[in-house]
Write a structure and sequence with these properties.
The complex is a heterodimer of chains A (120) and B (110). Chain A has 120 residues and is mainly beta. In chain A, a hairpin with a 5-residue loop joins strand 5 and strand 6. Helices cover 0% and strands 45% of the residues of chain B. Chain B has no helices and 9 strands. Chain B is mostly beta strands and 110 residues long. The chains are: A mainly beta (120), B mainly beta (110). The interface between A and B is medium-sized, with 24 and 29 residues.
Chain lengths: 120, 110
């Protein structure tokens, strides 16, 4: 079955960098993209960005431009999300999800989520 | 402030029907497909509807979606207590070249 497995919870200090991995299985990684979504405590879903599993094409949310980098390793079917200069309001659960390509913007399935806490 | 507008909460009795609206603009809902997600308390969001009105395999026929102009609607019939969850709409915004979500709607089954 199609599955996305994310790396474990992280605790980071303000100003640090974060990398979360998302390993895909059960489908041809290069035929689809990966979207990243985050959810702050008690808040709604926030779309962060999308990366193609085929050619590395990316789209980023405007408020994260300059701090966010999405990459993939096609040899291991793994996507990575790097967020730099962390702030306390980056505390959230981070999800990856399989998505075809814009504008076909639906996400299925989702990874299990990675809790990231940013605190001094 | 979300790009797509949803009511913060809706409620209805078991067995009844409820609708959740999602309002956008010509650059997002007006020109792209809408999807809907259910997030039960403490769980990962799950895709309910894609391409405005299509259900993935395994999703109950009690869930249906529609779109008209710059608005979309999720309808849930035969409400069950297990439907209590947060529901989110999402789409692509062609002007901004980003994905967008609604702020979410909390469904209470009284």
């Amino acid at each position: 079955q199609i599955q996305l497995v994310q790396s474990g919870a992280e605790v980071k200090k303000p100003g640090a960098s974060l990398t979360v991995s998302c390993k895909a299985s059960g489908y041809p990684f290069g035929a689809y993209g990966i979207t990243w979504v985050r959810q702050a405590p008690g808040q709604g879903l926030e779309w962060m960005g999308w990366i193609s599993g085929h050619n590395g094409e990316t789209y980023y949310a405007q408020n994260l431009q300059g701090r966010l980098t999405l990459t993939t390793d096609t040899s291991t079917s793994t996507a990575y999300m790097e967020l730099r200069s962390l702030r306390s309001d980056d505390t959230a659960v981070y999800y990856c999800a399989k998505m075809t390509a814009p504008p076909y913007n639906w996400f299925d399935p989702w990874g299990q989520g990675t809790l990231v806490t940013v605190s001094s | 402030q979300s790009v797509l507008t949803q009511p913060p909460s809706v409620s209805a009795a078991p067995g009844q029907k409820v609708t959740i609206s999602c309002s956008g603009s010509s650059s997002n809902i007006g020109s792209n497909y809408v999807s809907w997600y259910q997030q039960l308390p403490g769980t990962v969001p799950k895709l309910l509807i894609f391409e405005n009105d299509k259900r993935p395999s395994g999703i109950s026929v009690r869930f249906s979606g529609s779109k008209s102009g710059t608005s979309a609607t999720l309808a849930i019939t035969g409400l069950q207590t297990g439907d209590e969850a947060d529901y989110y709409c999402g789409t692509w915004d062609s002007s901004l070249s980003v994905g967008v979500f609604g702020g979410g709607t909390k469904l209470t089954v009284l």
